[in-house]
Amino acid sequence: MSQYVIAIDQGTTSSRAIVFDHDGNIVSSGQLEHEQIFPKAGWVEHNAAEIWNNTREVIGTALAQANLTRHDIVGVGITNQRETAVVWDKNTGVPVYNAIVWQDTRTQPIVDELAADGGVERFKQKVGLPLATYFSGTKIKWILDNVEGARERAEAGDLLFGNTDSWVTWNLTGGPDGGVHITDVTNASRTMFMDLETLAWEQEILDIFGVPRSMMPEIKSSSEVYGHVHTSQLLREVPVAGILGDQQAATFGQAAFQAGEAKNTYGTGCFLIFNTGEEIVHSKNGLLTTLGYKLGDAAPHYALEGSIAVTGSLIQWLRDNLGMISSAPEVETLAASVEDNGGVYIVPAFSGLFAPYWRSDARGAIVGLTRFVNKNHIARAALEATAFQTREVLDAVNADSGVDLTELKVDGGMVANDALMQFQADILGVPVIRPKVTETTALGAAYAAGLAVGFWNDLGELSSNWAEDKRWEPSMDSAERDRQMRLWKKAVTKSMDWVDDDVK
Ligand SMILES: Nc1ncnc2c1ncn2[C@@H]1O[C@H](COP(=O)(O)OP(=O)(O)OP(=O)(O)O)[C@@H](O)[C@H]1O
Ligand SMILES: [Mg+2]
Asked: Are 76 and 8 contacting, i.e. CB atoms less than 8 angstroms apart?
């Protein structure tokens, strides 16, 4: 009887369950999108109960599609949108508020207040992150400060916090009936509260934020048996054995296990992760220091990360907010119908600018408009924005590491777009390489779980599963590349200094 691992990928736009075989190939999958809730400008929420329902349903779909039962599955791995904060009542399992999503900027006043004493980098040496609305910490504080009764209930020990990995794991393992309240080091490193060296919650920072320690999940490695699925669930008694935040999972799924290896994932946003091995490297160029993975008792691996908030979601915005296209792949047709961007640059600073700028005062800008410009140019500029932003992050990685990356492994939904990948190679000046399995996020979580239960023996075995599908070689001459980057950087300056006291 063949055996399999199932990965749950609880993402920003959808929840997926994917069954993998021993060669790392996809056997079956289920996927459901959930509602994106935008109560006000800058606010982004999800309904955590909907997310859990969708998760259960996609597990059923994936099993049914391949005619599998729980007896065919040796382990569950979980990967997730990171930083998104869920706070729920441990007695009832009911969230006290919608999940506040990583893109949400409502906590800027909290950031400003905390930064008044010591600046935005006051905790960076310890936790690897600047103070920013992006991370979970200020979101938890906002819920405790603004939801009626939440602080009292939290202080009484009735409320739990988690990123969606913790939320899904707690529910899978029984919820109020004995659910385990845990997270892994990669997710914990996105809260602002975990000490990078001790891998423990830092009491002093929790106190400054006013977050009770009792709300926080126990920090575990990325690969060990955390518990078993509750008997009420389809996957009853299967071990839950791996957790990695989505970007770290994609790095793991790309088999970028060693120092010096990197990948870039093109989804809702874009996230370039550069493995620094067992060394904690502090960036001088606007990158985050984060956990890469930790396998059981072995030493943790660290990484530098360039986070770009808006890439694929700009394409969704063209579709949903402007009605310019009816599906994401259509953007390629529009873009291909013009020779170039017609002089247009789009800086999608919807949530401010993340790496390498970290400018919360920026907002989106379309510049270079003339009477000549049509929607095809806009479509092209939207795609190009992804490539320009990636180039800026890669430059930061090269500057921090002192060695230039000679190629870039890529994955995620946008790498289906050939024109974008060619333009990316052109703008980087190095080859861009897509693996056979582009669902690397889910694959990484499956690997973490499979390693813990002995389905795979070691990293070498996983590396041999990796296979190249396609490679794009740069063909733009360097003068043109430099010209385009100069114009892009000029466009970025136009998005800055927008938010002030008058802008809501
Ligand atoms: N052909 C295409 N051209 C450009 N963008 C595309 C194309 N196909 C998909 N996309 C974009 O890719 C994104 C989806 O990619 P993916 O499924 O990897 O997202 P994701 O980030 O994993 O989702 P989640 O945030 O739920 O984890 C969407 O934002 C979509 O707009
Ligand atoms: Mg994803």
From this structure: yes
Q: Which protein residues touch ligand 1 with a CB less than 6 Å away?
A: 11-14, 81, 246, 267-268, 312-313, 315-316, 328-329, 331-332, 412-414, 416-417
For residue 2, the model assigns a pLDDT of 75
Q: Which helix (H) or strand (E) holds 456?
A: none
Confidence of residue 456 (pLDDT cuts 50, 70, 90): very high
Measured over the CA atoms of residue 222, residue 227, residue 229 and residue 235, the dihedral's sign is: positive
**Residues near 235 by Cβ (< 8 Å), separated by ≥ 6?**
6, 59, 63, 70, 73, 76, 172, 229
Under DSSP, the state recorded for 227 is E
Phi, psi of 184 (to 5 degrees): -105, 170
Q: Which of 315, 351, 434, 439 to mutate to test the pocket of ligand 1 (most atoms within 8 A of CB)?
A: 315
How far away, in angstroms, is 352 Cα from ligand 2 center?
21
**Which atom of ligand 1 is nearest the CA belonging to 411?**
18
Closest CA to 212 of 129, 144, 112: 144
DSSP state of 380: H
Is the per-residue pLDDT at 42 higher than 80? yes
Q: Which residue has the tokens 């072995």?
A: 298
Amino acid at 345: Y
Token digits for 4?
Answer: 């399999």
Is 215 within 8 Å of 140 (Cβ atoms)?
Answer: yes
Question: pLDDT tens digit string along 384-409?
Answer: 999 999 999 999 999 998 888 888 99
Q: Give pTM, 2 decimals.
A: 0.91
Judge contact between 346 and 483, C-beta under 8 A.
no
Q: Which helix (H) or strand (E) holds 59?
A: helix 48-65
Q: Whose CA is nearest to atom 4 of ligand 1?
A: 414
CB atoms within 10 A of CB 469: 11
For residue 422, the CA-to-ligand 2 centroid distance in Å is: 22
Q: How far is the CA of 313 from the centre of ligand 1 (A)?
A: 7
pLDDT at 1: 59
Which residue is associated with the tokens 């079956």? 28
Element (H, E) at 46: strand 45-46
Q: How far apart are CA 306 and CA 265, in angstroms?
A: 11
pLDDT digits (tens, 9 = 90+) for 162-182: 999 999 999 999 999 999 999
Our CA dihedral for 396, 397, 403, 407, rounded to 10 degrees, sits at -110
Residues in Cβ contact with 157 at an 8 Å cutoff, skipping those fewer than 6 apart = 212, 214
Residue 393: closest CA among 478, 272, 491: 272
For residue 159, which phi and psi values (nearest 5 degrees)?
A: -110, 145
Kindly report, residue by residue over 349-383, the tens digit of the pLDDT: 998 898 899 888 899 999 999 999 999 999 999 99
Rounded to a whole number of angstroms, the CA Rg of the chain reads 22
